[in-house]
């Protein structure tokens, strides 16, 4: 029950804002829809692992939420490393973001 609550909290405070920011940045640089969809899937798939981390490190939730909301932490820093799928999606997104200066 607590893990479900934390997953909802992490989703609302961290994953959803990160996903929205990545989608906006990728849309601005006209990245292919497949790349945007991969990032969206990555964000959704990362939720259980991030919820586990939240249970193990409650302070991480607070600091990461503040960093995300203030823009001090880039989405790829939080989502990267949560799974092999996310690593590939973030790498593909970075190619478009860096090549177009976003």
Helicity level: over 70%
**Structural class category:** mainly alpha
Strand content of the residues, in percent?
under 5%
Shape call: globular
The count of DSSP E runs of length 2 or more, i.e. the number of strands, is: 0
User: Overall pLDDT, averaged?
Assistant: 86
Number of domains: 1
**Low-confidence spans: pLDDT under 50, at least 5 residues?**
none
Spell the H/E element sequence: HHHHH
Structural summary, described in words:
This protein is mainly alpha-helical and 102 residues long. It has one domain (1-99). 83% of the residues lie in helices and 0% in strands. The protein has 5 helices and no strands. The longest helix is centred in the N-terminal third of the chain and has 27 residues, at 2-28. The chain is globular. The model has no long low-confidence stretch (mean pLDDT 86).
Features:
mainly alpha, about 85% helix, about 0% strand, 5 helices, globular, about 100 residues
Summarize the SSE layout with pairings.
Blueprint: H1 2-28, H2 33-56, H3 58-70, H4 75-79, H5 84-99
Helix pairs in contact: 1-2, 1-3, 2-3, 2-5
Gist of the model:
83% of the residues lie in helices and 0% in strands.
């Amino acid at each position: 029950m607590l893990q479900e609550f934390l997953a909802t909290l992490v989703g609302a405070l961290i994953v959803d804002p990160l996903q929205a920011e990545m989608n906006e940045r990728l849309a601005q640089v006209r990245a292919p829809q497949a790349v945007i969809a991969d990032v969206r899937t990555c964000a959704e798939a990362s939720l259980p692992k991030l919820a586990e981390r939240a249970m193990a490190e409650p302070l991480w939730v607070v600091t990461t939420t503040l960093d995300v909301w203030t823009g001090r932490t880039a989405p790829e820093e939080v989502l990267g490393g949560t799974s092999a799928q996310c690593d590939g999606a973030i790498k593909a997104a970075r190619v478009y973001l860096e090549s177009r200066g976003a």
